[in-house]
C-alpha cells in the first residue's frame, strides 16, 4: 500500500492574530499546507506573504463545513489521500501533525480525532460542557464514543468525506461527518493532544448561542431519528460515483482514481465493444475480467457499457446482422409474426436473431467503441486542462 499523501488545511474566518504563526508551524513539519479563507472581513493573503502555502478564498462567509468541503475538492484535484484540519486560532500545536501522519500510516481508513487534554484550568467551562454534551449525543446516535467530537484537530481519509453526504455547512459539519462515517462502518482513532487557550479577553468566538444551539438541536434530533434506520457500509469505491448523466464529474472522478485520458479512453472502448456483444447476463463479469487483464479502469469500462443497454444498440446490431445475412432490412412484419408462431418456431426465430446480433455486433461494436473512446479521450483532456487552469 502506498503511503498517504496528506494535505494540512487551515480554515480561517476573522482569526488574523495567530494565523501566520499557525501556518509557519505547519510548514515547519509538513510541506503541503492549504489555507481556506472563508470570507474574512479582511483578506488573509497579506498575512501569508512569503510563505509557500496554497490559499483559497471564499468571496463571503459560508461556514466551516464549506471551507472543509473546498479543501476536500482541492485535495482530490491534487491527488492527496488524506486531509488534516487544524484551527487557525492557535489552540492546537502544529508540531503534533507528524503524530497524525504516523497514525494514518497505521490506520489509513480511519478518522483520527485529536482528543484535547481539558485538565488545564484555563480551559473554559463551556468548552468542557460542550465536549461532554456532544460526545453524549454521538454515543446515542452511533454507539461509539468519539473522544472529542468538538475538536477541530483531526485527520480524514479523503474518500470518506467524498462518500458521505453532510447537510451541515457550519462548524457542525465536523459532528455530522463523524456520525455518518460511523454509520458507514468507518472507525475512529483517538489521538491525545494538548490544547492552549488564550486569555478570555483575547478569545475570538463565532458561536451564536441562540442560532447555533437551535441548529445543533435540529441536527441532533434528525441524526438521532436517523440512527434507527439501516445504513449502507462505506468503502473506498464509494468515493467514485460514475453516471452517464454527469459525464464531466464522472471523468474527473475516474481520472483522480486511475490516471490518464488514454487509459480511460481504452477502458471506455473496451466496455462499449463488450457491451454490444450478445453475452447475455454475463456482460459485467466479462467486462471486469477483460478490463483486469488489460489493466484498465474496470469501473469506467462497466459504466461505458451501459451505452449498449437494450433496446437501441442490440436492435441496431440485429438489423445490421440481418442485412448482412439476407441483403434486406428486417421488417416490422417479420417481428410481428413472432406472436403467431408456435413455441418451437419462436425458439428458432430467436436463435436466428441471436446470430444476427452476433454478426452485427462485430461491425457495430468496434465502430461504437472507437466513437466512445474518442469522446472520452477528448473529454478527459478537457477536464484535465480545466483542473490545471
Account of the protein in words:
By secondary structure, the protein is of the alpha/beta class. The protein is built from 14 helices and 7 strands. It has a 7-stranded mixed beta sheet with strand order 3-2-1-4-6-5-7, with helices on both faces. The chain is elongated and about 90 Å long.
Topology:
Layout: E1 6-12, H1 19-29, E2 33-37, E3 54-57, H2 64-77, E4 82-85, H3 97-106, E5 111-116, H4 125-142, E6 154-157, H5 158-163, H6 173-183, E7 188-193, H7 209-226, H8 247-258, H9 261-276, H10 283-294, H11 298-305, H12 312-326, H13 332-336, H14 343-388
Parallel strand pairs: 1-2, 1-4, 2-3, 5-7
Antiparallel strand pairs: 4-6, 5-6
Detail the poorly predicted runs.
none
Major β-sheet, in short? Answer: 7 strands, mixed
End-to-end Cα distance, whole Å, is 31 Å
Q: Would you tell me the overall average pLDDT?
A: 85
Helix content: 40-55%
Number of strands: 7
**Biggest sheet: strand arrangement:** 3-2-1-4-6-5-7
How many helices? The count is 14
Strand and helix order: EHEEHEHEHEHHEHHHHHHHH
> What fraction strand?
5-15%
- What is the radius of gyration? 27 Å
Structural class, by secondary structure, is alpha/beta
- Principal-axes geometry comes out as elongated
